[in-house]
Specification:
about 60 residues; mainly alpha; 3 helices; about 55% helix; about 0% strand
Length: about 60
């Protein structure tokens, strides 16, 4: 079970990359996946990341 938790945890670099990529998508007109009052794409991307709805995954080497 510890391995499962570690695999689902992102490093700070992965988190920054995911949020940045998603914010760019939102800024370019991609649909927002959550209900929010935020207008800033970065804040929206952070909220999506925290809720676990960001459609971006990380592939790691074995």
């Amino acid at each position: 079970m510890t391995e499962e938790k570690e695999q689902n945890k992102y490093t700070k670099y992965e988190k920054a990359r995911i949020i940045g990529a998603r914010a760019l998508q939102i800024a370019m007109g991609a649909p927002v996946l959550i209900e929010t009052d935020e207008l800033d794409p970065i804040e929206i991307a952070i909220e999506e990341f925290e809720k676990g709805v960001v459609p971006i995954t990380v592939k790691r080497r074995d």
